[in-house]
Amino acid sequence: MSGTQANWRQALSLMAYVRKMRGTTRGSPPRVSNQEVFWSWIGAFLGIGLVGWVNQAFFSEIDLTLTIGSLGASAVLLYGAARSPLAQPRNLVGGHVISALVGVTSWKLLSADPWLAQAVAVATAIAFMHLSKTLHPPGGATALIAVIGSEEIHAMGYYYVLIPATLGPLILLAVALLVNNIPATRRYPENWI
Prior knowledge:
This protein is mainly alpha-helical. The chain has eight helices and no strands.
């Protein structure tokens, strides 16, 4: 094969690679019903509201926090996409717990190189969630928060796994079970394990 033919094949291969970035469908996804918007709002309001209230009532005086940003992302899945495989109880709780363990461990081992701790935490959390069948996208944020969080987060050490990363998702889960089963058009969960 000549150099020109090899260059031509590489150019075609690159063009095919770039074409994949166009997506496969045109237009935006369909809008959900007003009823779906209402119940998503109610669930998220009650779930995050309860997490915030428990945080304020029980943890604000003792340097522990129950409120972390990744719980907001979990609320989107639990109340806005309750049928998604990524929103099921195993994924919700397991994804946060595994990711918190990975994040805290990454910080403890690699805090001298924060950029490395961040990359190891998120990448390893994704790998462990895949291997344990608990993939939950907000888990990546839970791992990252353990590394980039405040001094209070770092001082929590492995308590971070228990307080925000286990208790927070369990509170959201309890609200999801109650709210997502009120309307006849919704059901949660699809599966437990």
